[in-house]
Amino acid sequence: MMCDGNKYEVETEYKPYKENIEKMLVEIKRDYPELVEAEEELKIPLAKLIATKDEITFKGFIDAVFKNKDHYLIIDWKTDKKDDKASEHRQQLEAYRRGLAIKKDISLDKIKVAICFIGLRRTINTGEIEYIFDDKQPTKSAFDTFTKKANKILEWKIDPELFFKELIEKEVNDDLWRSVVEQYKLEIRKL
Fold first, then answer.
1. Computed from CA positions of residues 41, 43, 49, 50, in that sequence, does the dihedral angle turn out positive or negative?
2. Summary count for the chain: helices (H), strands (E)
3. 53 DSSP 8-state letter
4. Quick one: pLDDT at residue 10?
5. Which residues pair with 44 in a beta bridge?
6. pTM confidence score
7. Number of folded domains that form the chain
8. Same domain for 168 and 91?
9. Are both 117 and 177 inside the same structural domain?
10. 152 against 127, higher pLDDT
11. Residue 122: what pLDDT?
C-alpha cells in the first residue's frame, strides 16, 4: 500500500488516483505522522457494537490508520465520482471507529475519521480527476442509522421471508433487483 511510503507504479489510467493519494498522504502525515496499519481487519462480535444477543460477527477492513502520539485517524479511500454519499460513508466509518476502539482498547475520543475522495469528477467531464479530504466527523445519528440497518439485517436473518417481502415492495430500477425478484417469484410458484 502506498501509505507505507514505498513507490508504486500504476497503469496510466490510474495515475490521477495515485497522485491524489500522494497529495493527501502529505496532508495526513503532517498531523498523523505514524502509519499504524494499512488494510486493518476488524472482526468483532456485533454484540460489542450494538445491543443484540445474536452471535453474528461484524467484519470490515479499514483502509488505513495513522497515529500522532495517542490520537488516531482512520482513513477511508473512496473512488466515488461525487462526494454526495459522504454521510453514508460516515455511517460505515463510525462503525469502524467504534470497532477499532474495542479491538485496540482505545478511547473513542482519541479516534477521528476522514474520507479521502480520490476520483472526483465534474458533471461536465473535463478529464480532470480531483480529490477532497473530508474530515467531518460522524454525528450521533450516523451510528443510530448503522444500528437500524444492522438490526434490519438481523430481522431478515430470523425471517428471510420478510427480506423478500420488503425487497418486492421496494421497486428499484436495477437489473440485479429484477432478476432476484423474478427468480424468487418463480420459486414461490413452484411450492
1. positive
2. 5, 5
3. -
4. 84
5. 58
6. 0.87
7. 2
8. no
9. no
10. 152
11. 85
Mean per-residue pLDDT over the chain, rounded: 92
177's torsion region: left (phi>0), alpha (psi -120 to 50) or beta?
alpha
Is residue 35 within 8 Å of residue 66, measured between CB atoms?
yes
Strands 71-78 and 34-45, bridge-based pairing: unpaired
Are 106 and 62 in contact by the 8 Å Cβ rule? The answer is: no
Domain residue limits at 107: 2-158
CATH number of the domain where residue 119 is located: 3.40.1350
Q: Are residues 90 and 173 in the same domain?
A: no
* Residue 103: Cβ within 10 Å count: 16
Claim to verify: residue 116 and residue 172 sit in the same structural domain: no
- Residue 109 near residue 154, CB atoms below 8 Å: no
As a whole number, mean pLDDT of residues 74-98 equals 95
pLDDT in tens, 41-78: 999 999 999 999 999 999 999 999 999 999 999 999 99
Please provide residue 183's backbone torsions phi and psi, each rounded to the nearest 5 degrees: -65, -40
Q: What contacts 111, CB < 8 A, 6 or more positions away? A: 71, 72, 73, 74, 97, 100, 101
Determine the pLDDT at residue 41. 93
- Grid cell at residue 139: 454525528
| Identity of residue 99 | G
Instruction: Give residue-wise pLDDT tens across range 161-190.
Output: 899 888 888 878 889 988 988 888 888 887
